[in-house]
Amino acid sequence: MKKEIAEIFGTFVLVFFGVGSAVLAGGGIGVATPISITGISLAFGISVVAMAYSIGQVSGAHLNPAVSLGAMVAGRIDSKTFISYSIAQTLGATLAALAVFLIAKNSSGGFDIAANGLGQNGFGEGYGGEFNLLGAFIFEFVATMVFIVVILGVTEEKTGSPMLAGLVIGLTLTMIHLVGITVTGTSVNPARSIGPALFVGGTALAQLWLFIVAPLLGALAGGMLHKLKVTSPPENTEEVASGSEA
Is the pTM value of this prediction over 0.85? Predict the structure, then answer.
């Protein structure tokens, strides 16, 4: 269970500081302004960097069922590990959402979860830029696919960059959030979406399916692109050299 415990911890940190930045930081980082979007994006990205360099050697620091699915499709983990990781990640995200909710609820001004939300993902009227279902689905699919391609590429055993992998992955997640916060709040991670939605209920739960299905399909596509060598480097390094010369 050592790897699963690491995934619980790592996903807890990601959601606690990422969602917490939107819920707890108040009028600066937690409102819909360019500054707040940048701050929340960095909170998610830095959390991934921190976990990648701290528990990466234990579990790989997936922190996300979509990442685990992409790794399984690429042949790096088996189905049993995918299932156990996904359960652990969802548990970690749920515990983090609970912690953020308890902190917010115990502020001097009080906290109305129905009015303020809990950093949940969403789409449509009254949410962010009010993008419709199709727009939200396309964003989550494409963003997750790109995220998986980057992760699998930078962690490739023979041609990856292990020393820089955590930084590259964290910056990529930051980039995705910079674009996606006004679209869906940015999920690309079913566990991150499940945690807050369980406490908010209502529309957040009704729309939750999109933030499970779209990221998993995106992960499947990203994993297949890597597995089929479309986005992964050739095994023969001479091919790289000849390609660059051309």
Answer: yes
